[in-house]
Amino acid sequence: MSETFKAVLVSRDEDKTQSVAVTELTEADLMEGDVTVAVEATTVNYKDGLAITGKSPVVRHWPMVPGIDLAGTVTRSSDARYAEGDKVLLNGWGVGETHWGGYAGMARLSGDWLIPLPDGLTPQQAMGVGTAGYTAMLSVMTLERHGLTPDRGPAIVTGANGGVGTVAICLLSHLGWEVAASTGRPEEAGFLTGLGASEIIERSELSEPGRPLGKERWAAGIDSVGSHTLANVLAQTRRWGAVAACGLAQGHDLPATVMPFILRGVALLGVDSVMAPRELRTEAWRRIADELDMAKLDALTTTVDFDDIIDTARAIIDGKIRGRVVVDMQR
Fold first, then answer.
1. What is the DSSP letter of 314?
2. I need a surface site. Which of 98, 99, 135, 256 has the fewest CB within 10 A?
3. 2.40.50.140, 3.40.30.10, 3.40.50.12780, 3.90.180.10: which CATH number matches 4-117+300-328?
4. pLDDT tens digits, residue range 140-168?
């Protein structure tokens, strides 16, 4: 008899009513793939919250084991790049959306989606970073490729208490940037300054309709919010500055004008963490291992058990989660 393991399964009935439950699976139940991984750690991202609550149509294959991130140990492989015992991690590629993801004791995946766990990182630390932190690093790298450096002026990070925001503050401050943090929880100012922020901006200052062009305030930005927030960030970006857009927590609309682009040469740079090529992923994770302060990562990370996944997913959608959440699958 095959050994069973626990999994979170999201299902939908004939009326398209979604439900979520914990179930037992075996390896025989897993989807196709050439590498099987014993999941040691995963995390709860905003997208995972959307998948579990059904607040947005994230899930595209039913039923679905959510979890867009995972780290663990290879147990079997027909991919020559991986052998039993290798430590690996995964972010994106539609896992948790179209292919069963990290909220299970085992996952069967394509070797093309995996990268080796960087030296110096444990599976739990990698999931402390997760897609959110990896996206933050991709955003930093995107700004750098545009030629932006700390001597150009400050950078703004929106959604500062979220997963992308907290890691972005850590990375930017480490690299010498002066960082302004926009948050709807000003009571968290001490937490954010401890991560490296030098200015706290109340979320309402940016989240309401604003002028098409405002006072020049920052040279760069990392935005995980979208909508009016992104429009206002662009309107207040300095001449020849740029904003890396990587999220839509406020909304997927962009109620802006072309004025920042044609009058100040501001650039809006898109960041796609889901389908980023392997080479870019590997470089991002190498830099994370080298440049992210692990003491700060610990400070912004909460660890929960498998049985806490569903409640945590609901809490992240309700805006009740600060920083990053690691699910330790071995506890």
1. H
2. 98
3. 3.90.180.10
4. 999 999 999 999 999 999 999 999 999 99
